[in-house]
């Protein structure tokens, strides 16, 4: 399995169904998890039941894990002011094949695709659009501008 950087582009959501008794969802955000790493999106810009994030997140792919570990989990939440945030649903994207493809072809890309958002009982809650790019590790290190490094530290002397 490849080692490198995986960029996740959270584009938008469509038709997200609220779990609230009194109406629609105004403030959705997404928790994205991969191999113990978690990122949180901003609250989406809403247009009715359509929501736009257009945000990119970078995850390190470091391990040669088993096939069941190579998955991105998108937990869609609705931000509440006076109570706990509501869980709307989740989408899971398995990326093992994408990571494997990069070993043969270099950078591997999935264009923006729609993924179903479901609850634990598999009830449909809408869909999200996500694009993924995986860049494998180059020779002995990552591309410096992507993740920083010792040259960006205060100890670097030119």
UniProtKB/TrEMBL annotation:
Keyword Calcium: yes
Domain C2, chain residue ranges per copy: 1-108
Pfam families: C2 (PF00168)
InterPro entries membership: C2_dom, C2_domain_sf
Entry-linked Gene3D superfamilies: C2 domain
UniProt keyword terms in alphabetical order: Calcium, Metal-binding
Name of the protein in its database record: Elicitor-responsive protein 1-like
Species for this entry: Cicer arietinum
Gene of this entry: LOC101500397
